[in-house]
C-alpha cells in the first residue's frame, strides 16, 4: 500500500484539531477567550495535548509556562500563545484572558440614627447586593435597606456583584445618637383667669400641645392662660433631629379652692403703698399649693 501524502496531511490536521482548550473546565475552543475579575485567576487546560511539549508566552501572570495546564492571573487583558511540539507535528493556539473592569461598591456616607428611630442605607455599584451583618435591618439583599431601632452603633458591609460577576465590598458606619434631655419646667399654680409663661430647655426647636389657651406652640417660652388645670407637653428637637418629650402641670385655683399648704411671704414695699390688699392676696394665693381631691 502506498500512502498518499495528502492522506497523511489530513490525518495530522485531524489530530491537531482534536486539541481543545478549557478554562475552569469550560470548553472555550471556539472563542479561545475567557473572562476573569481583577485579582482572580483561571485554570487553562489543553485537552488531548499529552503528546506535545507546550510552551506559553508571555509568561506574565502564569504559575508555570511549560505544561498543558496552567493558572493564569494577569492584571490586564492578555493574549497567550501556546506552542505545542509533538511527534506528529506542531500546533499553535492562542487564548485571550480578558480582565473585566472592577466592581465598585458604594454603601453611602457614614450616617447616624436617633434612639428609637430608623435610618435608610442606599447602596450602588452592582446588580446583586448583600448587607452584613443583617442585625437591625429590614432587608439585607436589596440595594436599599433600613436600620430600625438599633440599640448600639453599627458597622455594615455591603457586598455587591456586578453584571460580570465581579464583587466588591464597601463599609458604612451608623452612629447611634442619644435623645436630648428636654425640660419643660416645674409645675405651676395660677389663679383663675391668671397667666403664666412656660420655658422649655434642651433643644433648638419645640412643639407644645395641646394648643388651647397658649399664645404660640412653636416657641420655647409661650404664655398660657388656661381656665382649668391642664398638662402641657413639649416635644424638643436637637441639632441632629433627635426628639424627646417632657410635660408640665398648670394648676388653676378658684375662690372656693381649698389649699393643703399656703406659703405666706411678708412683702415690704419701700415706695408708696400702691399695692392693694386684693393684689397682695393674689400674690399670696399664686404660691399656694392646692389640696389634691379626695
- Proportion of β residues? 35-45%
> What is the residue-mean pLDDT, rounded to a whole number?
84
Number of strands: 22
Would you tell me the structural class of the helices and strands? mainly beta
Walk me through the structure:
The strands form seven sheets. The chain has a four-stranded antiparallel sheet with strand order 2-1-4-6, with no helix packed on it. It has a four-stranded mixed sheet with strand order 3-8-7-5, with no helix packed on it. The longest helix is centred in the first third of the chain and has 13 residues, at 5-17. 8% of the residues lie in helices and 40% in strands. The protein is rod-shaped. It starts with a helix and ends with a strand. The chain contains two helices and 22 strands.
Concise structural overview:
The protein has 294 residues and is mainly beta.
Provide the fold topology.
Layout: H1 5-17, E1 20-23, E2 26-27, E3 33-36, E4 42-47, E5 52-57, E6 69-72, E7 78-86, E8 89-99, E9 111-114, E10 118-122, E11 128-132, E12 144-148, E13 154-161, E14 167-177, E15 188-190, E16 196-197, E17 205-209, E18 223-224, E19 230-237, E20 243-252, E21 259-261, H2 277-286, E22 289-290
Parallel strand pairs: 3-8, 9-14, 15-20
Antiparallel strand pairs: 1-2, 1-4, 4-6, 5-7, 7-8, 10-12, 11-13, 13-14, 16-18, 17-19, 19-20, 21-22
